[in-house]
């Protein structure tokens, strides 16, 4: 819950977002979120792969760097990661899929101002 008003000190904000994307290949990174502020933003990102037959794996790309060792989510699975200093979140297909694959991305962002 946001604390509204001017208290003279810093305030904390916690935002939660959920979206579903479709991965269709292993070359196109799909942008999910980008920090366009000067705030240092921390958060937890959950990737849920709802693909079934011939589906792509979902690889998470954070701050422009592939975190494939940490987060590659196979069809029917989910995984999460908590990170600080987030600047961008993207997802790209991985593996040998051939079918359009629905991927649900949920994330919470936390920052002070």
Q: What would you say this structure looks like, in words?
A:
- The protein is an all-beta fold and 113 residues long.
- It has one domain: Jelly Rolls.
- It contains no helices and nine strands.
- The protein has strands at residues 12-23, 30-34, 42-49, 57-62, 65-66, 72-73, 78-83, 88-94, 101-112.
- The strands form two sheets. Strands 2, 4, 5, 6 and 8 form a five-stranded antiparallel beta sheet that branches.
- A hairpin with a 2-residue loop joins β4 (57-62) and β5.
Short description, anyone?
With 113 residues, this protein is mainly β. The chain has no helices and nine strands.
What is the CATH-assigned architecture? Sandwich
Low-confidence stretches: 1-5
Topology-level CATH name: Jelly Rolls
Major beta-sheet overview:
5 strands, antiparallel
Percent helix: under 10%
**Structural class computed from helices and strand pairing:** mainly beta
Beta-strand percentage range:
over 45%
Tell me the Rg in angstroms: 16 Å
Overall spatial form:
elongated
- Name of the top-level CATH class: Mainly Beta
Q: Count up the domains.
A: 1
How do the helices and strands follow one another from N- to C-terminus?
EEEEEEEEE
Q: Strand tally, please?
A: 9
Continuous helix count: 0
Terminal-residue CA separation: 15 Å
Mean pLDDT: 87
